[in-house]
Amino acid sequence: MAGNFKMMAKTLYGFETILAKELRDLGAGHVEEGVRNVTFEGDTGFMYKANLCLRTALKVFKPIKTFRVFNEKDLYRHIYDLDWPDIFDVEKTFAIDSIANTQVFDNSMFVSLKAKDAIVDKFRAVVRDRPNVQTQDPDIRINIHIYKNTCTVSLDSSGKSLHQRGYRILTNIAPINEVLAAGLLLQSGWDGETDFFDPMCGSGTFLIEAAMIACNIPVNINRESYAFMHWNDYDAKLHDKIVDASLKKVREFHHKVIGYDKAPSAVRKAQENVEHANLSDYITVERKDFFRADKPVEGKLHMLFNPPYGERLPIDMEIFYGKIGDTFKKVYQGTDAWLVTSNLEALKHIGLKTSKRIKTFNGKLEARLVKYEIYEGSKKAKNNN
C-alpha cells in the first residue's frame, strides 16, 4: 500500500505476543515478534494511532536508514547524508540514544557523539545554523542501533515512554509501571466481561488500566504530546482525525471496577488519579483492609493485585502471604485471583495451588504472575457437577 513504511514497537519482556495481537487488531501489516519488540508496517496515520492506542508499547520507532558500518567514518558519512533539516527544524532540541553491540566501537556514548557531530554539521552546511542538544525532554529523539556491522537510524515517534499516560498525577512508594499493568491485565485474560477487583490498589494503576481495557478507551488519550508532533511533516489534522476515530470505538462497560486499600493516603491518591483519567463513573475506591473486608460483589469476580514483596515495603512475608491464602479460601469463592510478586519464596506461604504461572519482570526484578482459581464450594464438588 502506498505510504506504508516499517516501524518497530518496543515492549517489556514477555509482552511481545500481546503487543503483536494489539497491532494486528489495530490493522498493522507484516507484524513480526522480536525480543522485547515487534516490527510492523503502516502509514503515518497508523503511527499516530499506534502511539495513541497501544497498551503494551513503550516506544514506537520509525527507521529511516540502515547501512553497513566498519569504522567511524562510515558512521559519520551515512548519518551526515540524511537530510536532517528536512526532518526537523533547527529551532528544535534533539537527543540521541545509541545501542552498540559491535566490535567496531568501544561504547555507545562515542556513537552518540559522532552522530551528533554529523547532524550538527549537516545543519550548518544547509541552513548556516545548528540545533541544540538537550538530553532531558528534547523535542526530537533519534535512536541508533548497531549490531555487528549493521547500523539502523530511527526516529523515536513517542518521545517520553508511552507508559507515561498522563493520568497518574500522584503515586505511592512502589507504583507499578502502566505498561506492565496493562500487559499483566491482558495476560490474565481481563476483557471487561465481569467485575474487577484490586484489593491493594495503591495509586490505582490496575484499576484505571482495567477500566480503559473494558471500555476500549485509547490508553494515551490523556497524554498531551509525542515526539512526532515536532517533526516537519507532522499533520495535525490527520492526528485529530485518528483521535476522533479511536474515540468512536469506545464501548459501554456494564460491570464494576473496585479498589481497596487500607492506607488513607493511597485511597486519596487513587481517587484523584481516577478522576484525572475521567473514569469516576466506572471505578470505586474505598478504604478497606482486604483481610477484614467482605467480597465486594456477588458472583464471578476477576481479581488482580500487586501485594508488597519486601523489596521497598518491609513486611513479614510468611504471615502476610499466609493471610492472603486464608482470605482467598474464606471469602473469595467464585473468583479468578491473580497476583504478581517478585518474592517467589513468599508464594509458597499462600497454601493454594496455582493454575497458571507466567514469568515477567517488575523493573529489574524477576517476578511471577500467578493465578488461583477459587471455586464455589470444593473443587471436588465442582468437578462432580
From TrEMBL:
Domain THUMP: 46-157
Top-level taxon in the UniProt lineage: Bacteria
Keyword set includes NAD: no
Annotated Gene3D superfamilies: 3.30.2130.30, Vaccinia Virus protein VP39 (3.40.50.150)
Keywords on record: Methyltransferase, RNA-binding, Transferase
InterPro entries associated with the record: RlmKL-like_Mtase, RlmKL-like_Mtase_CS, RlmL_1st, SAM-dependent_MTases_sf, THUMP_dom
CDD domains: THUMP_AdoMetMT
SUPFAM superfamilies: S-adenosyl-L-methionine-dependent methyltransferases
Pfam families given in the database record: RlmL_1st, THUMP, UPF0020
Name by which UniProt lists this protein: THUMP domain-containing protein
Source organism: Flagellimonas yonaguniensis
Taxonomic lineage of the native organism: Bacteria, Pseudomonadati, Bacteroidota, Flavobacteriia, Flavobacteriales
